[in-house]
Structures are given as structure tokens and as C-alpha cells.
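Late entry, written up from scratch paper. The run itself happened at the end of the previous shift, but nothing got recorded in the book at the time, so transcribing now.
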Amino acid sequence: MVVVGGGLAAARTCQELRAAGFTGPLTMLAGEARAPYDRPPLSKPTSETGSDEVAVELGVDWAKLDVDIRLDTPAVALQAATDGPLIATAGGDRYEAAAVIAATGADPLLPDGWLTGDEAALRGSVLTLRTFDDRRLLDARLADPAVAAVTVAGGSWLGMEIATLARPWVDSVQLVEQAAWLLPLLPPEVGRAVGDWLPAAGIRLDLGVAITAVADGGDRLAVSAGVGSWQTDLLVAAVGVRPATGWLVGSGVRLSPRTGAVKVNPKLAASVPGVFAVGDVAERWSPRYSCWLPGGHWQDALDAPVVVARSVLEWLARPAVGSGPRAATFNRSRSAVGGYDAVPYFWSVVLGRTLQWTGFLSNYRVAQMIVRGDPSGSQWTMCWLDEDDGLAAVLACDRPRDAMGARRLQAADPAGAPRMAPARLSDPAVALRDAAIGGGR
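Output as recorded:
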């Protein structure tokens, strides 16, 4: 068995394979030189002790788990074969496997055409944040007395977190977002509700500004946009990620033409037999919502490996061919497994406020929005109901009981949208679960 990747999804997959009864050889091909660690702390502020403080190890005893972990060994190609997939690495090694689980995560985007001039010279001042080494470089640049102004490109959760992280270190932090509101993948009401947080913390916010070029301006960077230009000492791009599937191009594995993610069924199996995918790299079919959902959230990386491990063992339980990798050792007593169809859930902490989203909103324009509390205050919840008063999505700001109540109700509903009583839902004094028709218990 080969798990390709070195993040949370890869580590959890190894743990779940062993827990589900797989006792054969298990190899992890990790692209980074570090053992798997938790990524969310990378964008959170720390004290002056620096980047070592954010290296949150996962606490996995790899020797006890009996995993042959190969660090700094990225996969570069996959080839389908009769007896199981073949993986080639950057170092020229080849691995033959009974099954392969892709958990290579995603790579940060830097828009084409942004960097003009000597790209190598610009790279030290135009950063992204995805790995521990990225954070270490960011810390070093923020601590440099010559860096007085920072521009953050992208009003996503990550962009807001980076701006928050940078503010105590430099004189000027500017966040630029090309959309008309922050968090542009969510309804505009959300962006408007959080829009005052950054200026109140001394962070300049420029909306509707699209960066077109970043050039070496001498001692500083010269940033151009449709509304003009300015100079900054450091630019951090948080404009999105792309699933890390370059090593799968030409393998026959079906990739999303839109995102490049691996298309998987509810059991997280890809189009090539013996290949599975989990975490940020996957795009899963959801029977609950009858659509494709990205796997790009921490909760999926934590939970989906339970299903992918059992799906792999179910695959291995088919009659083996010959004496190659397919004749692996595993517990055959496991019954058939169901698919992974979790309700999307993610969270972020921005300027001391915890934001939790649960649900799937296909079109906010036709949904009825109900607000619990005052969005200009410190605690509030936004709810979106579909045409049948079903609770499609919830965003809670420092109201964890609302978020967890909604999450439980949605998980228990086959369509992920339990029917609610709008009048009761609008009353923040009523527990969200008690606004469900039938009590939601």
C-alpha cells in the first residue's frame, strides 16, 4: 500500500488503514522534508519565539504504526498496471502497490503574469503561505527592520488571517481583494458583516482592486492595479490553491477540468482501479447534494480517511491476481462500507472572533437569509433557508452552540437541509435545534 502525500489526510489514512485491519507493508511518500504536521496554525499569530511555535506535530509514532515514511520524496508520475499502480518519484525510484491513496493536498496559486522582470529576485518578497518553510520565511521577512509595509492579496479566510498575523510586526498592512466584498466565495452579507473588523485593527482594506503586476521597484516592490499603483516591502498572495495533481496527468485518472482535482465516487475511489484520493486533492460526488464537492477543508482531511481506508480494504478483498502487490495482507472480515457524504464544515479565527460555517448553499440569491443577533455586534449567526424552509447553510460568529446545533441537524437530514420554523429561528434566545420542525432532537 502506498499513500502519496505528507499532510493530515495522508497521516490519518495511514492510521485508519491500520485500525481497519491492514497489516501489510505501508509506505508514505511525503513531498516535504518534515513529518506530517497540522497546517491551520501556520496562519495564526505567535509570540516572538517565531515559526517553531507553529510546528504542531500530529503525535504519530510512525515506527509503532509500522509505516515506511519517505520524506522529501514527491511523486512525479503514476502508471496503471494489471497488478496494481506504479508510482515514480522525483529521485527516480519506482513503487509498485496493491493500491494507491492520493493525499497530495494543494498548491498555492500565484496568478500568471503577476511577476514582471527578474522573477527569482522577486520571490523573496512575493510569498505564499502553505508549508512550514513558507511560514518560517514569512516570519523572517516580517522581523526584518527594512520591512515596514505589507500587502496581502486576497480577502479569503487565509488572507484575513495573514493580515492579522502581520499587523503587530509592521507599520502598515494593506489587504487587497478584487471582489466587492470580503470572503467572496460566501454571500455578500458575510463580507459586509466582517468588513469593519480589519480597519478597526489598523489594517487598510481595498475592495474591488485587482492586482495586475508586481515588479522590482528598486528597494521596494512596485504593485500595479486597475486603480493605480503603490509600493510595498512585502506581498503575500492568498488568492486560492489548486489541487496538487500534476503527477497524475497522463495516468488515466479522471481530473476535474475546472479545478484539476481527482474525481472520486462516494467511496473515494478514482477512475483508475486501485487508485483512491482523499483531502484537498479530491473532488467527491455527494449523493446528499447531487453535485461535486471539493475536499479542501481540514474536517474532510480528518474524517474522510476513515472511509477511504475501509474502501481500500474492500477493494483488496476482491480475488488477488498472481503473487504481486494485490496479494496483500488484510482483515477480510470487514463488511461493505458506505460512502463519505459529510456536510461541509469549516472554521476560522479572525481578529479574535471564531467563525464557523456548516452546510452547502448552491445559490444564495434565491435563499432566504435569517439573522440571529446583530451582525454589527460581537455574536451573531446567519442562516440560509431553501424554498422549503430547509436549513441549507449557517455561519456563526462566536455562537458555537448555533454552529454545532446546525451541524447535527444537517448531518441527520438526508438532504442536509432540515426544515425550520423561520419565526423561531430568527429569535437568538431560542436554541437553534429547537427551531427545527419536530424539535430536531
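The chain has a mean pLDDT of 90.
(Scratch paper discarded after transcription.)
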